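User: My collaborator sent over this chain with a note saying "see what the structure looks like." That's all I know about it. Can you take a look?
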Amino acid sequence: MKIQFNKRFLVRGIALTVLLLFGILMYFVGRQHTILLDNKTITLEGQELKALPIVEVQVDRQEVLELAARDRDKVLATNQKHSITISYTDSAWNEISFTRKFKVPVGEDMVMVSIPALVANPESDQSLWLAHYEVPKMAVAATPEESVVVPDELSLLAPL
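Assistant: Without extra context I'll predict from the sequence alone. Here is the result:
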């Protein structure tokens, strides 16, 4: 079979390339991620970071979530790049608000943002406060096989 490099072959090749590039683009743009917002006390590099009493968190342009200490909430977001805005009141009653941009690693379905780690180091690398999260699997004990119980009255009728 001989391949002819004519106008039809060129148009089909360009169309196939455009479809492949569009598919790759849609994978990155349209992929949905679950972002867990965690406001719990953690130990990071030997230092204990306390949970904030009340903190307001907004991911991208979604609704503002208010988290108390030891709270965790989730946000569903599409795309790889996101911005997170955190507003809280410090111990001197000063309102502090900052925005940080981050990128969800390719292939991640669920990530967890540690709010105390982000507040303690807002300019740090995202690997300190953004972590992969895997849903815990429940351990179910295997049920023992049911044994047949023969009552005494029917023992004479049971085959040996």
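A starting point for your reply to your collaborator: Helices lie at 7-30, 115-120.
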